[in-house]
Amino acid sequence: MTQFQFYFQCAFLLPILNELMADPEISPPSTVPARPEALILAPTRELALQIGKEGHLYGQGSMVSTQVIYGGTTTFQQRNKIHVS
Predict the structure, then answer these.
(1) Where are the domains of the chain?
(2) What is the greatest pairwise CA distance in the chain?
């Protein structure tokens, strides 16, 4: 990842994570059913995976859980990722 890509991802990931972690009404990821609190759209699968990886890294140790969903795979499998998390 280039330095530009790193700063670009931090520019929108960190404010989102900051808001999520500061919100007392957000339920922990173990609460079922969890609900999406933020959605980040990416133009490519590779970028979506990279953003998901960074989101997971930055949110580690907090109540924030990240999932990456992209086209080209079965809907059932990806929907399961959201419900199980």
Answers:
(1) 3-84
(2) 38
- Nearest to 65, CA basis, from 33, 28, 23: 28
Measured in Å, how far apart are the chain's first and last C-alpha atoms?
A: 27
- pTM, two decimals, is 0.71
- At 39-54, the pLDDT tens digits run 888 888 888 888 889 8
Closest Cα partner for 20 from 37, 40, 41, 39? 37
Cβ-based burial of 57 (10 A; exposed 0-12, middle 13-18, buried ≥19): exposed
